[in-house]
Amino acid sequence: MSYLENDILKLRAPEPSDIDLLYVWENDPEIWFCGNTIAPYSRFILSKYLETAHLDIFEAKQLRLMINLKNKSNKSIGTIDLFDFDPYHNRAGIGILIADKTERRKGYASMSLELMIKYCFDFLGLNQLFCNIDTENKESLELFLSHGFEMVGIKKKWNKRGVDYFDECFLQLINKKNHQ
To answer: CA–CA separation, 128 vs 125, rounded Å?
Structure first.
C-alpha cells in the first residue's frame, strides 16, 4: 500500500473528468461555510484549477486530493486538501469534505484524515498540520480531536453566516517524531 490508500479508499489527484463533480460540490451552498466560500465557482475557474493541479505542493502551496472508494467502482465521495503550505516552517492547513451525503458517517473522513496525516508527517516531513473549524461543526471537531489535533484557540465572532457571526476553533497537530 502507498501512503495515500488503504484497503477501503484511495486519495488521488483530480482529473479533468472530475470537473462535473467538483462543479456540483463547490456550488453547494449548504457546505460553503466549511470553506468560507461566499460565491459560486464557474466551470471555467474549475478547469483552470485542474490545469494547474499537476503542480506539486512546493510550487502550488496547496494540494487537493479526491477521496475514492475502492469497493464502489472507484466512486469519488469527497476531497481532502492541504492549503497555506509553508515549506520553511514545515506546516500546512488541512480540510476535508465528504461531499456525497450518502457516504457520510461511515468512517471515510477518519480514514482519509489518517492517510493524509501519515503522508504529511512521514513522506513530506511536515512539523505540523492545522485546521480551522466552526464551533457549530461538532462532527468535524470530533473528527480532528480524535486524530490527536489539539484546540489551541478560538477566534471570536470570526465567520459570518447570514446576519449572525460564529466562533471558529484553531486546531494543531504537531509531528511528535520531530520533537522526541
So the answer is: 9
Using an 8 Å Cβ cutoff, are 81 and 27 in contact?
no
HEC assignment per residue over the chain: CCCCECCCEEEECCCHHHHHHHHHHHCCHHHHHHHCCCCCCCHHHHHHHHHHCCCCHHHHCCEEEEEEECCCCCCEEEEEEEEEEECCCCEEEEEEEECCHHHCCCCHHHHHHHHHHHHHHHHCCCCEEEEEEECCCHHHHHHHHHCCCEEEEEEEEEEEECCEEEEEEEEEEECHHHHC
Phi, psi of 64 (to 5 degrees): -115, 130
- Evaluated on CA atoms 103, 68, 22, 119, the torsion sign reads positive
CA nearest 153: which of 126, 133, 178, 175?
Answer: 133
Question: Is residue 172 within 8 Å of 129, Cβ to Cβ?
Answer: yes
What single letter denotes the amino acid at residue 87?
Answer: P
pLDDT in tens, 69-106: 998 678 999 999 999 999 999 999 999 999 888 899 99
What pTM was estimated for this model as a whole? 0.85
Q: Which residue has the cell 492541504?
A: 82
